[in-house]
Amino acid sequence: MKHTRLTFAAFVVLMVGLGSSDSLRGIFSPVFSSHFALSATQLGLIVTVSYIGNLVFLLVGGNVIERFEKKKALLALTGIWMAALAVFAFTDNYYLLLAGMFCAMGASTLLNTTLNLVTPLLFASSPAFFVNLLFFTQGIGTSGSQSLLGRYATDIGFWHKTNLVLLALGGRGGAAAGVQHGARPAGRMGPASGKASVRRAEKQGRAAARLCVRFYFIAEHGVMNWLVAYATAGLGMEQAKASNYLAVFFGGVMLGRLVLSPLVDRLGILKSMGVFGSLSAVLYIAGCCGAAR
After folding, report:
1. Cα end-to-end span (Å), the chain
2. How far apart are CA 146 and CA 247, in angstroms?
3. How many helices (H) does the chain have, and how many strands (E)?
4. String of b and e for 37-64 (b: at least 16 CB within 10 Å)?
5. CA distance 293 to 154
6. How far apart are alpha carbons 249 and 275 in whole angstroms?
7. What b-and-e string marks burial along 160-198, b requiring 16 or more CB atoms within 10 Å of the CB?
8. Residue 88: in which H helix or E strand, if any?
9. What is the DSSP string of 51-72?
10. C-alpha closest to that of 276 among 219, 194, 203
11. Which of these, 36, 86, 134, 186, is most buried using a 10 Å CB contact count?
């Protein structure tokens, strides 16, 4: 049980760092635009390259995760993510920024996937709760960084310093996960029963789940990448105020994952997706209509 807690703690550190890292594109978009004298197309290319990296890593990396030990995959992906952070921290070039975004987003997505697969094996009694708890901690990194960093993200120097901090955080979490994940936790499910649990979860409404996740991904990351730029350029808000709006949005995501996660175990996956997906769609559309006015 001690090893399980330590492994989960290492996962938490990684998820906080990943949440912070993923939110930086939106926070620093005005800084990138000013520092590199970017056009709207060049600024948008930063986001485009990020998601191309996401697609490529998911296409290739999914097979890698299946074929190799999860611990090795986790450490390799952490290394790629940290290498991208090092590019951000120690270089000052638009094209290197694009390359770093490609690797950072791709590695981050696969790290999320790997942690999502491993966590249910550690906590077989209530896997949905602990997966949601893990993503709650990612929300702390996302929302916290948006609120805090948005106040100070005024120049490229602060961008470098921020990524240095994340680099140290990734090193700490990756090292701890590498040491602890190799140990077999007390009371952990055996490999066969654990895999059966994952297969059962994957089998339930696979087509519907994929469709919902795609729309969710578009909605969440659209807000993450463009809200600050839209609020500052389109609505004339100050950087700090715009970042706080973004932090409120992801603060809601974070609290929902913590408070509502026990209901997922009770309602079941499909019913939860139907209820929460419908409610979130109504609120999201209402928010978009309000912003348009």
Report:
1. 53
2. 5
3. 11, 0
4. ebeeeebebbbebbbbbbeebeeebeee
5. 28
6. 19
7. eebbeebbebbbebbebbeebbeeebeebbeeeebeeeb
8. helix 70-90
9. HHHHHHHHHHHHHHHHHS-HHH
10. 219
11. 134
The amino acid present at 24, given as its one-letter code, is: L
| Alpha carbon distance 210, 202 (integer Å) | 10
User: CA distances (Å), 99 to each of 96, 119, 203, in order?
Assistant: 5, 30, 36
pLDDT tens by residue, 232-274: 777 777 777 777 777 777 777 777 777 776 777 777 767 777 7
- Give the helix ranges, DSSP H, for 150-268: 156-180, 191-203, 206-229, 239-259, 261-267
CA distance 64 to 58: 10
> Can you tell me the distance from the alpha carbon of 50 to that of 104, in angstroms, rounded to the nearest whole number?
8
- φ, ψ at 205 (rounded to 5°): 55, 50
Structure tokens at 133: 């708890």
**17: closest CA among 131, 153, 170, 139?**
170
Q: Which residue has the tokens 């990756």?
A: 174
Give the separation between CA 61 and CA 212, rounded to whole angstroms.
22
Handedness of CA 2, 8, 114, 81 (dihedral sign): negative
Using CA atoms, how far apart are residues 13 and 278, in angstroms rounded to an integer?
A: 32
Q: Rounded to whole angstroms, how far apart are CA atoms 50 and 43?
A: 12
Of the candidates 148, 153, 12, 172, the one whose C-alpha atom is nearest the C-alpha of residue 82 is: 172
Amino acid at 256: G
Q: Using the structure block, give the residue that is written with the tokens 């901690």.
A: 137
User: In the numeric block, which tokens belong to residue 89?
Assistant: 């921290």
Task: Please give the Cα distance from 220 to 103 (Å, whole number).
Answer: 20
